[in-house]
User: Which sequence fits this backbone?
């Protein structure tokens, strides 16, 4: 054992230095910069006193929460169906449903514009049918659709894997005790999927909180937190506010990831 | 909780992909009787149980009757059967007592009376103090006892057990086997116990149904099955069986190792089967059959002596008491009573 | 069984319509738009003939590949160390190492600027020590550091989980046969981690290919594919090229994800 | 491949957190001897094996000698021992033959000769045609035979087996037990076999070391251990043991159920132990001990009769032949020879 340990220490020593320098120093810097604004007031207090910042925070949390709820509902229904039924072309359907995973946020934003933008599919069809052109790509609805686009496949895969791991005897036992399909779903299946739903839901929330590419591409008329950070830092050179907002966003996401990790016991991450 | 009679009539099962899991089989289970269905994996024993349970429907033409009433079209949730699974299948999101009370909850029994009834059943299974535990705080044996309590709490018409002891280790398996035995004797509930373990089938079945490749090989009491197996398959699947080849001429069974008197017609090729405990080792001189000892395993309560039956043939096994010692290579006589020889 | 199936069909029918409309139509649209450019030539051919596009593709692939290799090496060493040794504060070190997961790409870009930007830590220290100010935040190196920042924690968690699941008897068996620590590492441990390394490496590559926020924030002087797509679509209104590049990026990422999925058997996704 | 003698001298083990896994123990293993270390989980048997292997160092003062040479400071990779694990521990990234040849590869044997030698060992284990297979294409029994082949391929000085059969199911366990027995007898290699299963220890150990809570409870041949257990722990851990309480007065053991003549000094409180196969059921009239039958389990080759020993006492067990039937409630006599009674 001691020999193995010595071996491990030799391997890891250079890493310790790297980690300290590259991982921790910038985070410490970020925390320090976030404390005081240019005019000397506490930045966090300043943020809470500025309606524009608060509105952005609220909008981001709202869109992320709504995305999470809708994703969980839709993905769970589809996942349960796909986990339980075998039909020709099932593999192809799963491949199509999970294909959006391959598109980064920018392309997803682009897809939303193709769907619901000024020359989009929804607009064309709605104009032909009702005479009125429906365009929602640049609104909160567009952002929501974009977030659903990359959230649903992730949650779908997680919940499907969990549903396939469920012991079928659990449902059979409940049925033998007299429970019909809806009761089995409510009392047995959904509670058993609980950890998977919590984990993928929290992950979905964290991803939606941090998504930048989609929002940026849609140039939406609602502002979200990552865009605000970008604007404050790059355009307004307001490092203190950008730092404080980053810490705030990091803390919220970190909380969601912690929930996800403790529910699933495995490694999960925010949006890249 | 006295049981009902169950009739299985021509129930076969062919799956959607055309595989036949079960040829049409028929049998009856008397009210209060314990039936063990015994067979190797893939013999259709679990499929038979699932058809009785209502988890699978039989192929067209098959019927399942509970006390004479046709229940074939009823799904399991309307048959009032108690089921116990190999994987325990306890609900992880409920406490022990909530698991046991679940059947009563589904039946609309209010919270207080249902928890009271569940507590009674737990007490009967000597689990009275475990009601508040989470499932993952229980050992395997305790889990299966909770599963039994859960199945019994709804006063089912029949108790169906699908290899309930297979996931447990040997010592625990024996304890719980005795416990289930006591339970079935006390409650006199009709039961069907599926297993691949012959000791379980022997102890728990009033009668045993031995199955082989989707069909019934034999139905009978444990003694019938052990002493009068209907086929070579049953003979070798239930207990250990020795096999001796030879020919019968004039009331004498002639083998490579010697001659035994038998009461059978002449046959150019005959195969005799006998149990290890029916083989008596005697001094070599003047013995009807003579062998060399290949090896001897001292097992504590008994010794298992392996006899060299010649090139290519499996060793013969004789179980003897634990006192005398046997050396490999030593010559020994072997005697088997004519009544202990089975020609199959 | 039939009853269960019927139940499942009722649940899923509304979903089929949703899926067709919102998932598949925009992707089909994207594929169609990608075929011909405004001047009638095949867009894919046009892309291959344009040096700027090719250079961007090459740079993106290069950065992503380099990120993957460096991440795998660094994360494996740290993961093996953390999986094998128990020391006080181990949990805290793991928490610190995985904290960057909570930051979206924009904040990671921001961290890189704090580290190696014009007023960054590296610059300040290097000026004090050598008199020369080292600034690499806006170069390919800065991008690489940013990508490492969010790649290492992910791979670290995956490899650590895999290393903890390794049967210690495997190594003991190899040692009983005479293998010393380095042989055990090369012959037994690394091959056993193979699926985890492949899966997390492919995922790391896919994430780096699609990362937008970091690159955008760094306003780096090397162009990456998601930024090119954004530029072509939003600023140049060149829908055909943007579509074709999206399909190209999607195909590469999809391939990487497929590798990751077949190696790990579970759900994995690109950058949000 | 003749084995070496192994001396374990005062080897204890205290872990970093202060837990004592092993009190200092000493024993010798003769060249070519098979030793089984038997005990319940947590008794320190695996720790003892790992100290012999070199996977753990003993606490200061402990020494391990191979043929008289001190190997205590050598790590396992320099001791040339063969190890077989409960989990098989086959390398999943190598084929069957590459696994078997791995030890030779580490020793620098060129590819062709090492594959040749590995193939020979595979053939010895009747696995000749499995060389090209992937590990996950093998059954559990085949995997453990490959693990044995891998350990033997390097011609180790001693073979160390850590519960190698525990992960297998009952039937396979018995087959492989016989196979390991044959292998140890043929190769005459020194071996240490750790197990919690007394049947394995009996069959495979020339001598058995019974361990209890980090210490040695008894060392002896299987017959010593079974017939002359050194303590109540050994008596009840190895085989089934009945327990009868009473008092000895004037050469008579007086119990609630009757009186037995014994050859021992008077004692106000005495506990007699006897084996189920030493219990003879006799007609109740005139029998020294009388009981009521609680239940009788027909097990095929034998019957196990449980006798009611009164309120709170565990039932006594008598193993009898499989012919006579016993009814619950029936009265029976019980006879035990004085020589079969153990007072511990």
Assistant:
């Amino acid at each position: 054992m001691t020999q193995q340990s010595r071996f491990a220490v030799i391997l890891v020593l250079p890493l310790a230095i790297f980690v300290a320098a590259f991982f921790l120093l910038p985070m410490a810097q970020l925390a320090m910069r976030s404390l005081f604004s240019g005019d000397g007031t506490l930045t966090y207090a300043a943020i809470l006193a500025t309606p524009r910042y608060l509105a952005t925070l609220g909008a981001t949390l709202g869109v992320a929460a709504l995305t999470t709820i809708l994703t969980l509902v839709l993905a769970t229904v589809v996942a349960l169906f796909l986990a339980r039924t075998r039909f020709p072309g099932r593999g192809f359907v799963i491949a199509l449903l999970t294909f959006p995973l391959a598109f980064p946020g920018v392309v997803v934003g682009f897809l939303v514009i193709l769907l619901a933008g000024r020359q989009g599919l929804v607009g064309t069809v709605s104009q032909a049918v009702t005479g009125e052109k429906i365009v929602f790509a640049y609104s909160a609805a567009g952002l929501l659709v974009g977030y659903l686009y990359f959230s649903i496949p992730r949650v779908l895969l997680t919940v499907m894997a969990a549903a396939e791991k469920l012991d079928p005897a659990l449902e059979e036992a409940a049925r033998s005790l007299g429970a019909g399909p809806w009761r089995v779903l409510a009392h047995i299946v959904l509670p058993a999927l609980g950890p998977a739903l919590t984990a993928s839901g929290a992950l979905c929330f964290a991803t939606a909180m941090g998504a930048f590419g989609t929002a940026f591409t849609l140039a939406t008329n609602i502002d979200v937190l990552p865009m605000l950070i970008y604007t404050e830092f790059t355009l307004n050179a307001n490092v203190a506010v950008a730092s404080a907002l980053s810490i705030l966003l990091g803390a919220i996401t970190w909380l969601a990831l912690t929930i996800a990790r403790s529910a699933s016991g495995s490694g999960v991450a925010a949006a890249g | 909780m006295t049981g009902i009679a169950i009739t299985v009539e021509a129930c076969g099962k062919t799956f959607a992909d055309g595989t036949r899991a079960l040829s049409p089989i028929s049998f009856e289970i008397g009210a209060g009787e314990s039936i063990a269905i015994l067979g190797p994996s893939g013999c259709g024993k679990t499929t038979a149980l699932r058809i009785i349970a209502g988890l699978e429907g039989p192929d067209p033409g098959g019927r399942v009757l509970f006390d004479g009433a046709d229940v074939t079209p009823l799904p399991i949730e309307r048959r009032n059967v108690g089921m116990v699974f190999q994987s325990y299948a306890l609900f992880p999101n409920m406490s022990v007592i909530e698991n046991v009370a679940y059947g009563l909850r589904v039946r609309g029994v209010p919270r207080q009376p249902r928890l009271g009834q569940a507590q009674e059943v737990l007490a009967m299974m000597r689990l009275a103090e475990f009601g508040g535990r989470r499932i993952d705080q229980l050992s395997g044996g305790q889990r299966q006892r909770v599963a039994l309590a859960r199945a019994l709490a709804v006063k089912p018409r029949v108790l169906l057990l699908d290899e309930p002891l297979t996931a447990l280790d040997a010592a625990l398996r024996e304890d719980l086997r005795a416990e289930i035995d006591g339970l079935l004797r006390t409650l006199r509930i009709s039961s069907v116990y599926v297993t691949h373990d012959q000791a379980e089938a022997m102890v728990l079945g009033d009668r045993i149904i031995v199955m082989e490749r989707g069909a019934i090989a034999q139905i009978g009491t444990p003694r019938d099955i052990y002493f009068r197996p209907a086929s070579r398959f049953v003979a070798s699947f239930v207990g250990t069986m020795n096999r001796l080849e030879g020919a019968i001429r004039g009331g004498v069974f002639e083998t490579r190792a010697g001659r035994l008197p038998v009461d059978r017609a002449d046959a150019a090729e005959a195969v005799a089967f006998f149990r290890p405990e029916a083989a008596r080792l005697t001094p070599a001189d003047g013995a009807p059959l003579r062998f060399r000892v290949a090896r001897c395993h001292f097992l504590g309560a008994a010794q298992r002596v392996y006899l060299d039956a010649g090139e290519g043939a499996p060793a013969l096994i004789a179980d003897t008491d634990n006192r005398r010692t046997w050396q490999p290579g030593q010559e020994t006589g072997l005697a088997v009573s004519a009544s202990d020889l089975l020609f199959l």
Summary: Chain C has one domain: 44-268. Residues 44-268 of chain C form a domain with the MetI-like fold fold (CATH 1.10.3720.10). Residues 51-84 of chain C form the longest helix (34 residues).
